[in-house]
Amino acid sequence: MNAVSPIVSALLLVIISVAASVLIYFWVTSFQGQVTQQAGTPKALGSCLKN
């Protein structure tokens, strides 16, 4: 049984790392949007912005 060549293994590691980074990026941005939407604008800050 032959082993996987070093080039193929390095390429697989890069692909897995990029895919994981993209998934984490999308999860963080969607989570941040949900938290921001739930928090809303504080009343004191909202009244300052209206003036």
Question: How would you explain this protein's 3D organization?
Answer:
With 51 residues, the chain is mostly helical. The protein has one domain (6-50). The longest helix has 34 residues, at 6-39. Helix content is 82%, strand content 0%. It has helices spanning 6-39, 43-50. The protein is rod-shaped. The mean pLDDT is 81. The chain crosses the membrane at residues 6-28. This is Archaeal Type IV pilin N-terminal domain-containing protein. Keywords: Membrane, Transmembrane, Transmembrane helix. It comes from Thermofilum adornatum 1505.
Compact overview of the structure:
This protein is mainly alpha-helical. It is built from two helices and no strands.
Biggest sheet details: none
Q: How much helical structure, as a percent, in the residues?
A: over 70%
Low-confidence blocks of residues: none
Structural class: mainly alpha
Beta content: under 5%
User: What is the overall silhouette?
Assistant: rod-shaped
Number of structurally distinct domains: 1
